[in-house]
Design goal:
Radius of gyration: 29 Å
Distance between the termini: 35 Å
Oligomer: single chain
Strand content: 5-15%
Largest sheet: 4 strands, antiparallel
Structural class: alpha/beta
Strand order of the largest sheet: 1-2-4-3
Helix content: 40-55%
Shape: globular
Length: 588
Amino acid sequence: MKKLLDLLSEEIGQAFEATGYDAALGKVTVSNRPDLCEYQCNGAMAGAKQYRKAPVMIAGEVAEKLADSKVFKEAAAVAPGFLNLKVSESFLLEYVRDMAAAEKFGLEISPNPGKIIIDYGGANVAKPLHVGHIRSAVIGESIKRICRYAGHEVIGDVHLGDWGLQMGLVITGLKERNPELVYFDENYQGEYPKEAPFTISELEQIYPAASARSKEDPDYKARAMEATFRLQNGDRGYRALWRHMMDVSVADLKKNYGSLNVEFDLWKGESDVHELIPELVSYVKDNHYAYISEGALVVDVKEETDTKEIPPCMILKSDGASLYNTTDLATIMERMRLYQPDEIIYVVDKRQDLYFEQVFRCARKTKLVPPGTELKFVGFGTMNGSDGKPFKTRDGGVMRLENLIRDTKVEMLRKIREGREMPPEEAEKVADIVAVAALKYGDLSNQASKDYVFDIDRFTSFEGDTGPYILYTIVRIKSILSKYRDQGGDTGRALFRQAGNESEKALMMELAGFNAMMQNAAEEIAPHKVCAYVYDLANAFNHFYHETKILAEEDETRRAGLIALLDLTRAVLEACIDVLGFSAPERM
């Protein structure tokens, strides 16, 4: 189904062509003066020089050709050469009817959908998720859902940090606590226990204590590095402990990510490509992509057009150890072999921009990816406190993500109980749903690359540009539809009718913009555009609601038409919040 603006542009383009001008001049945009018109075309201004004629004369000729248009009810030429346009209610009605009948509201699905891998989450095993993890998870999940909605095959990968020094630190800390564990007996040849010798809570205590000590005690850090080396080189006991760490940590991560409606298709980590690293090193050496610089193996990735210094991409340190670069390049190698993606999107802190520029250039220079495969970096800003600095707890520590979610749910429950009567159990369920919307919408409504301030009072408000406001709008519509059904009406048989007032027409026009918005959000990887649309649509509905009798409308035919419009509005709003990663309750 064609986008509304494309259809409007076609109509204007035909009018330009009929008067002897280039049809390409007929591009229509939403009016920047809604008090004067709904849409506008500035093509006459662009064509004036080409045709050596005053733009207002060109606009006037085109406006005359549109006098009998079935698409526009008004087309006026105004100085110095604009075309002010108002769309026909009957044309808009047909468009909205077609939307309601079409799959995905008529969104144009690409005839050649791509395969996309999204690398987001980036949690570290044996460490609790903190507030710094929220943006990657929330933004990545929404990008995954938007791209799937647009028709692409999308694979989400958590890409765990599960193979570095933190593993050696945990093993060393555990050995100090429980040296008698069988995993540390080098002569043990039997089967290791199936149950982990620690809980997630104990694991999360061991790591920070070990990490802090390693910074003060060089001998302790050396033992941790030795433990890491032994793990990575196949020590039986250490590998068994590592598997326990993975099982316990991943179960906890799934619970915490799940509380935000964040899911991954792949739970792969750095360890999955450990065996590929020697092959990668041989490959870049044998094909003369890499060279030795101060003892390290590097690939030069600078380009003549660079305006800033781009250091070489290091493959191995001078002591032969691998780095994050090595792991990420090996991961690209594995992804190309297993999935052959058309695109890999990395959702990572924007401060990693230079790092990923190096990795991407290296992957291209060494031909790890074919020319047609895109590597994209979606860098996000930080979530800050009211002081403008990265969000901290009141005592200055880094807040755990589960505590942030809990605090938001507590605040949401308080506001729900204040505003309405509801059984306690239902109130808690509703608070859980609305709190997730508050957190995710509060994050996603900002452009990903920008920092934002976490304001729990604003995010949990039922007024303004917030998740709770959007959900309240959806619940209001659901309530009206439910009452209509209770009165014997059938929402499935309600037929659309031509707009009866300006606010009804404005709501239809907002609905008609869905396809263009969703396509644009997918192409530009921009969840904030879905948020902006949802907010505008909710505002258009609420304006219409306050100006229009719906259930009190005495004309049954008109009432049924209003119900059809409400049902489509609900469906579009719910499709939008679904790609943002949250849902609406039945009542609030």
